[in-house]
Amino acid sequence: MSTTAQEILGSSNSTSMGYIENSTNTTTLASSWLPRDFDTSTGIKTASILLLFIVSLPGNFLLVAVLLKNANKRMRTPSNYFILSMACGDILLTVYSMPQFGILTAYRFRWLVGGVAGEVLCRISFFVGEYSVLVSTGSLLAIALDRLFLVFYPLGRKTTLRTAKYAIAVIWLSSTIFALPSLRLFNTVEIGPGYLLCMVEFKLIYFAIFYLLFCFSILIALPLLITIALYIAIGIKLNRTKRPGNQLPSNRERREQMNHKILTMLVTVVAVLIICRFPLIVGMLSCFSGSREMCSEADFIFTGWFLTYANSPINPWIYFIFNAQFRHGAKLLLMKIFPCCFKALNEVSDVESVGVYVEMEALK
């Protein structure tokens, strides 16, 4: 059975976190969520979520297919395994959470499923979102560490594929463990006759704040800060590396150029991750710290979640834009699937294959 807002708050003057003070505040909070006509703004929001889904699903599936196909037999590197891990997390978010988010937006966040099934789906909804964020953050940190070892210790012991697989297993397992508390925090709350929301249970508000603070500071913010610091160190190292004067590019110089390209790509991924992930987390913490306006404003909730979901379709296209290997692999796959549409690409395929091969040789 879903919990009603009045049952949670009762007639007492509850002061949980300063913004749930009495039944009057509850009515004010709920009023902004009550049904309204489907207006132009809602239509635009719903269409924008559909666009995210359309861009994200093929992009991430294509990225996974390129890595698994391994067309040039040189794609199976530790860094690419971590990229594969991130793409799988984005697919999970795209397939489960995005359609649900679109439906919630169309119905002004009204939870359409009641009863036990509604409660279960509500809990799983936030769990999947949190799980994907943790997987992406952990995978991004693993990529940065792998690049650090390659740049600072090029002749040392490199990360093996077996080590990468173990690291990915740890990332997914630990993400599962740390995301599990979210299954308890969320539930369906009835704010009007037959009108349900999927939200944090008010009686668990203190635990929710502690959990969100822990996730933000330890599980998300700290790894991101470490990742950024690693990229800065890599950039300084690459800029200080001496290059031959007027000589032809050596294998070492080609490797350094490739490191610069990869570094640019990964820094872009980090910037996108921060822009897309931080607003929702900071907003939720502000909300639970006493900002009633933010909690009761549906547009703010939409913007935070929209930016979070926008990270999933952006990630794969960053790799296709910055990395010639991924572009080459994608073209080969698309030529096989749609041969009639990619005849022109056949003429440059062999030339590009040579270029990709030279780049990979430079990284050895």
Automatic annotation (TrEMBL):
<dbReference type="InterPro" id="IPR017452">
    <property type="entry name" value="GPCR_Rhodpsn_7TM"/>
</dbReference>
<keyword id="KW-1133">Transmembrane helix</keyword>
<feature type="transmembrane region" description="Helical">
    <location>
        <begin position="204"/>
        <end position="234"/>
    </location>
</feature>
<feature type="transmembrane region" description="Helical">
    <location>
        <begin position="47"/>
        <end position="68"/>
    </location>
</feature>
<keyword id="KW-0297">G-protein coupled receptor</keyword>
<dbReference type="GO" id="GO:0004930">
    <property type="term" value="F:G protein-coupled receptor activity"/>
</dbReference>
<keyword id="KW-0812">Transmembrane</keyword>
<dbReference type="GO" id="GO:0005886">
    <property type="term" value="C:plasma membrane"/>
</dbReference>
<feature type="domain" description="G-protein coupled receptors family 1 profile">
    <location>
        <begin position="59"/>
        <end position="319"/>
    </location>
</feature>
<keyword id="KW-0807">Transducer</keyword>
<dbReference type="Pfam" id="PF00001">
    <property type="entry name" value="7tm_1"/>
</dbReference>
<protein>
    <submittedName>
        <fullName>RYamide receptor</fullName>
    </submittedName>
</protein>
<feature type="transmembrane region" description="Helical">
    <location>
        <begin position="80"/>
        <end position="104"/>
    </location>
</feature>
<keyword id="KW-0472">Membrane</keyword>
<keyword id="KW-0675">Receptor</keyword>
<feature type="transmembrane region" description="Helical">
    <location>
        <begin position="124"/>
        <end position="145"/>
    </location>
</feature>
<feature type="transmembrane region" description="Helical">
    <location>
        <begin position="262"/>
        <end position="285"/>
    </location>
</feature>
<feature type="transmembrane region" description="Helical">
    <location>
        <begin position="166"/>
        <end position="184"/>
    </location>
</feature>
<dbReference type="InterPro" id="IPR000276">
    <property type="entry name" value="GPCR_Rhodpsn"/>
</dbReference>
